[in-house]
């Protein structure tokens, strides 16, 4: 009986034995680098010498980008309060939810913005990266599904009378809806003011528009039934976002697609328009935005005072590395400088206290520093 048990235990041990291969037996040839002064010190100097000029080039490229930023959170309307002062539009829409407010902001560009110019809107203290906010969407609906709404959209999934909301979710419900129009005071034309032409397409990622958003069969008007309702904070239906351009309407509306790509930080900017430099007849802006006096006309709809946020209007050119971002160049310069300083320090330590590789490796019990 015991012999049978011994045989079984030997068989079990044999079945658990790894294959006799270099990999299974962990006998593969390996190379373990030894960090010595001859290998480490050159690495510090090479990294430092390489990163410093790269950082300088990145910083110069960022400084070449021209950018104008204006905070229009407290833009004042034409309405006067009891004290005779103009009422901020933020207070107007706060006291009258759903109302709209118009305001104008004059400003001056002190230099020419040569090349392609982009128009952005920016928000602060808006946490689009909140887990529940990011999750609050229905990707099947955004691909044109006419079926039931995902529970992820709750409580923005249906109205009080049971109609399904399209597009559903907190992201879509909080879509930015200010209207920004730019006017240029052109001294060469009668009436002076000339509207800056802009493109409202080409602002979204092509991959988003191709793969993540799609209108239902029959177009966005398929939702124009009693079964569906617009988001609670919207003044328009999904099929009314751009009724002049069917390719930019419904879920394919690029303003909507840009907003649905959530930001990682509470202070962010999103592309709003691209200046149309080659519009026929608009020769004033062919090479960019000329310096001079401008007026920003704002249809103020989006409330931010409830969460202590701010709204910004941004004009910017770009460079080979994108928009204005001095951080990357500064980071390269700082890291490169640190590497060079550490390299010099380690060279001094090696010269004063270092020992040769032979002295380090040939250590015996009789070695004085053993």
Question: TL;DR?
Answer:
This protein has 370 residues and is an alpha+beta fold.
Helix share, percent: 25-40%
**SSE ordering:** HHEEEHEEEHHEHEEEHEHEEEEHH
Beta strand %: 15-25%
Strand order of the largest sheet: 1-15-6-12-10
What is the overall pLDDT average?
A: 89
Q: What best-fitting shape do the alpha-carbon axes yield?
A: extended
Unreliable segments (pLDDT under 50, ≥5 consecutive)?
Answer: none
Question: How would you describe the overall organization of this protein?
Answer:
- This protein has a 5-stranded antiparallel sheet with strand order 1-15-6-12-10. A 4-stranded antiparallel sheet has the order 4-14-8-9. The protein has a two-stranded antiparallel sheet with strand order 2-3.
- It is built from 10 helices and 15 strands.
- It has helices spanning 2-15, 37-64, 89-95, 131-135, 139-142, 170-173, 206-212, 254-260, 326-353, 357-361; strands at residues 67-71, 76-80, 86-88, 101-109, 113-114, 118-124, 164-165, 179-185, 193-195, 198-199, 228-229, 268-275, 288-289, 292-300, 310-316.
- Helices cover 29% and strands 20% of the residues.
- Strand 8 (179-185) and strand 9 (193-195) form a beta hairpin.
- Helix 2 (37-64) packs antiparallel against helix 9.
- With 370 residues, it is α+β, with helices and mostly antiparallel strands.
- The chain is extended.
What is the fold's blueprint, element by element?
Blueprint: H1 2-15, H2 37-64, E1 67-71, E2 76-80, E3 86-88, H3 89-95, E4 101-109, E5 113-114, E6 118-124, H4 131-135, H5 139-142, E7 164-165, H6 170-173, E8 179-185, E9 193-195, E10 198-199, H7 206-212, E11 228-229, H8 254-260, E12 268-275, E13 288-289, E14 292-300, E15 310-316, H9 326-353, H10 357-361
Parallel strand pairs: 7-11
Antiparallel strand pairs: 1-15, 2-3, 4-14, 5-13, 6-12, 6-15, 8-9, 8-14, 10-12
